[in-house]
Amino acid sequence: MAQEEKNGKPIEQLNDVTVMFAGDSGDGMQLTGTQFSDTTAFLGNDLSTLPDYPSEIRAPLGTLYGVSGFQLHFGATNVHTPGDNPDVLVAMNPAALKVNVKNLKPRGIIICNSDAFDAKNLKLAKYESNPLEDDSLSGYKLFPVPITSLTVAALKDCGLKPKEVTRSKNFFALGLMYWLFNEPLEPTLEWVKTKFKNKESVICGNEKALKSGYYYGENTQLFASRYKIAKAKLPKGTYKSISGNEATAIGLIAASKLSKLPLFLGSYPITPATDILHHLSKYKNFGVKTLQAEDEIAGITSAIGASFGGSLAITTTSGPGLALKTEATGLALMLELPLVIVNVQRGGPSTGLPTKTEQSDLLQAMYGRSGESPVAVVAATSPSDCFYMAIEASRLALKYMVPVILLTDGYIANGAEPWRIPHVNEFKEFEVTQRTDSEGFQPYDRDENLARPWAIPGTPGLEHRLGGLEKANITGAVSHDPENHHLMTEIRAQKIENMQNSIPDLEVDGDSEGKVLVIGWGGTKGSITEAVNDARKKGMKVSRAQLQYINPFPKNLGDVLSKFDNVIVPENNMGQLAKILRDKFLVPVIQFNKMRGLPLKTFEITEKIAEVLGGKND
Amino acid sequence: MTNKIDTTELKPKDFQSDQDVRWCPGCGDYSVLSSVQKVFPKLGIKKEDFVWIAGIGCSSRFPYYMDTYGMHGIHGRAPAIATGLKVARPDLSVWVSTGDGDLMSIGGNHFIHACRKNIDLKLILFNNQIYGLTKGQYSPTSEKGKVTKSSPYGSVDYPFNPTSLALGAEATFVARTLDRDVKHLQEMLLRAGEHKGTAFLEVYQNCVIFNDGAYTDYTDKETKAETIIKLEQGEPLLFGKNFDKGIKIDGFNPVVVDLNDGVHSIEDLLVHDEHDESPVRSFIYSHMTDHPELPTPIGVFRQIKRETYDEAVTRQIEAVTDKKGEGDLESLLFSGNTWEVE
Q1: Which residues have a Cβ under 8 Å from the Cβ of A366 and sit 6 or more positions away?
Q2: Residues ≥6 apart with Cβ < 8 Å to B29
Q3: Contact A561/B at CB under 8 A
Q4: Does the domain formed by A240-426 have CATH 3.40.50.11540?
Q5: Contact B338 A303 (CB under 8 A)
Q6: What is the ipTM of this complex?
Q7: Which segments of chain A belong to CATH 3.40.50.920?
Q8: What backbone torsions phi and psi does residue B211 show, to the nearest 5 degrees?
């Protein structure tokens, strides 16, 4: 740990740090965390974030269930998750402390708003004595700071109402954190000026709170040292911080451009998918049509109507909404129309954990329909990967005339990471044909991929009827013929299998054969990558792969699995991919499953690898 | 459909598909099908621009029998499918064929929201007051006490009045007609087809198998003059064999008056104004059907002008594009807080 002096205080160099901002759900912790992330990214750190908030809009003040948190892991190398355990906890009240202190690393830093530790709040947080005064926090570096009163004093001349003044205390905390981690105030100051343009008093309040926090760190003797995080060695390019939902939205716009088709979104608000609707609604000048439907079913069926009309049609939802879309998904696959269904998975079943993450809709996506009804299933592995997989889902839907389910999850949807922005010319345009020639037209004719022609209303001479009743192959007439039904069932399955020809092989990180392969799918990539890197540092030989394509699987998956003595499948569910792998490849995979509504913890996966290798993990 | 085009060369048979029509012999649906095929050439819309969307039920087989673009969807969802199609493609003329189970029960939510949003759809409700395709259960429009397979002791449900529901949901065109009055049916189809906005047409349609005779009082020569009143724009509400009875309003209640009683004259009668912005009077008329002593109105209850949803969507896109310029993907990707890594 390198040390240098600045302003009389030593600066410790660290590789990476995990910070947790926690407070009441009205304390502005999400904003504080986002600002800290943006500044950190701007300085060249790699980072990964996890907003963690209650499902109530404003839960009662001071309560344990009302705590809102924002966890951020930033550093130079091996930053692929928001971090297992924070090094620093910023707690704006006793409840925030109580909920989060148990995750803090031993000897971790706690910065508390001591003003909030009054009898009422302590009682609400179910503390019997004040933890700032008893010995209970002696295992940590505790810094009680009277954040509320310092903010009130600093903002007395801004002309804000008392309520607005105290609401600015999150910026005091943010300023203090900027000082502690040796980061500049300018990016946030710029943001404040743009965001609150023409609201002078609010700008004044935020600026003063931020600067007071910073100078408090500089001028008090409370902190013995401050920290500096080395820059990450990221590939050259232009970067921005992006969340998964935003990436999904602009990926869909990119797909619309690449396919030269208008984009239509039919959607009903549902946590944590709603942000995709928010983002797409902004881009009217891209010709995007967003329909906030009356319910989930209208969300997907309106998209089916738009697809019939020749649009690139999308519906977005989360688990319970996907359940409601079940019947219509079956209709889309029967009509053989292109459709992208984005499912931002959350904790289930039923209403479950709306604001928490999980991967438990894989089997629903694969099999949750009546009849033999295969649909394509793809998954994004990180916030920025949502951009690429939204494009892929669209490409496959259009090429094979099928519904495609894109699975993301609450963690990658709301979490953010730095993204090297690609240029438009790095992408190939899609070849999409809408039939215009009436000569020899048959609605269920087949091309080399078994896709049927897309003939859209308004095209003279191609009038035809689609429907959920079984259709005769080629002619599309209603058919109850036994042999035809068997044939059509096989064709619908074969279309999905044919996609193997246009998706990439699965890449293995590490040796292509050996004792242990850790394989995951979708949003667990970060946890598995960090875990495997840690295991390697400890001398373990282990390979890693992450699936983005689940139906169909990449062509080489069977080969990859067969080259390893042990296959570990960590999942944020009770073993859904494991089940499918056993079914398709008869491999005795080893499951690793957690259902906490949080990203998988890196160290637990590393322990699992060590256990399988029969060695110790230390 | 901004401009009518000359489609006089189109004939009813151009709209007949190659599929055998499989409704029961004598079904009221045949009358609607042939009327639609007669009316479509008169609308000035190209054949390829018509689309029929349907859900599930006898009436929902309709698209298979029309040689237009069509989709036989899933139960109750036709208005939502049609909404997506119309919003994506405002250039099309989008029609929905639906039944009292499909639209009033499982599809009730989509129905009221299509009306509310004023999406430019033509919703043709085949109301036979029974579930036909599932072979005879009471429907949301069946009368209370109806004995069916699923209500052997009589149903205890109160029925919906679809026309009232459409008015309550703010549909901009609301009409009612009879399968047996082919001339009126065709006139109403034409009016619905020409309306811009959600057009709701309730067709009292006879199911010969499971609910035969439900509307006999309205269609029989002997009785119809006393049981049916035709709403005509700007005309007083007159009915009866000799048009010597009328409807006047007493408080909020419509009552029948005899013009030969020496007390009442035509001046006392309600005069129909389908363009009235307020749906209140139309709502009163629509409920006359629930009172056995009052005649049941058919005709156009309401037709008002209001910007359609699909027009508003298009207008908003144009306004934002005018202001911000056409979206450029490369600039979108590189927008926001970016930084360089060397």
Answers
A1: A377, A550, A551, A580
A2: B23, B58, B59, B62, B126, B179, B205
A3: no
A4: no
A5: no
A6: 0.97
A7: 514-613
A8: -150, 40
Nearest CA-CA distance, residue A238 and chain B, Å: 5
Q: Could you tell me which residues come within 8 angstroms of residue B60 by beta carbon, excluding any fewer than 6 positions away?
A: B54, B72, B73, B78, B97, B98, B99, B102
Chain A residues whose CB is inside 8 A of the B330 CB are 423-424
Q: Is the CB of A467 less than 8 angstroms away from the CB of B53?
A: no
Distance, C-alpha A228 to centroid of its chain:
28
Dihedral, CA of residue A60, residue A61, residue A64 and residue A69, to nearest 10: 110
Gap from A326 CA to chain B (nearest CA, Å): 11
Taking an 8 Å cut-off on Cβ atoms, the answer to whether A458 and B71 are in contact is no
- pLDDT category, B1, cuts 50, 70, 90? very low
Q: How far is CA B42 from CA A149, A237, B46, B49, B191, in A?
A: 78, 62, 10, 14, 11
CATH topology of domain A514-613: Rossmann fold (3.40.50)
d(CA A493, CA A487): 10
Surface of A (370-429) touching B: CB under 8 A? 420-424
The boundaries of every CATH 3.40.920.10 domain in chain A are 3-229
User: Is B84 close to A257, i.e. CB distance below 8 A?
Assistant: no
Q: pLDDT tens digit string along B269-314?
A: 999 999 999 999 999 999 999 899 999 999 999 999 999 999 999 9
CA distance B153 to chain A (A): 33
Shortest Cα–Cα distance, A242 to chain B (Å): 10
Q: Which domains does chain B have, with CATH numbers?
A: 1-214+307-342 (3.40.50.970)
**CATH, domain range A3-229:** 3.40.920.10
Contact call for A283 and B47, based on CB within 8 A:
no
Length of chain B counted residue by residue: 342
Residue A608 clears pLDDT 60, i.e. is over it: yes
Which H helix or E strand runs over A148?
Answer: helix A147-154
Nearest to A309 among B89, B326, B332 (CB): B89
pLDDT tens, residue by residue, A41-59 = 888 899 999 988 777 777 7
H helices present in B207-335, as ranges: 216-219, 224-227, 280-286, 309-324, 329-333
Average pLDDT over residues A514-538: 97
The answer to whether the beta carbons of residues A560 and A506 sit under 8 Å apart is yes
**Using the beta-carbon criterion (under 8 Å), do B64 and A423 form an inter-chain contact?**
no
Tokens of A578: 């494991």
* Torsional sign, CA A344, A348, A353, A356: negative
CB < 8 Å to B21, chain A? none
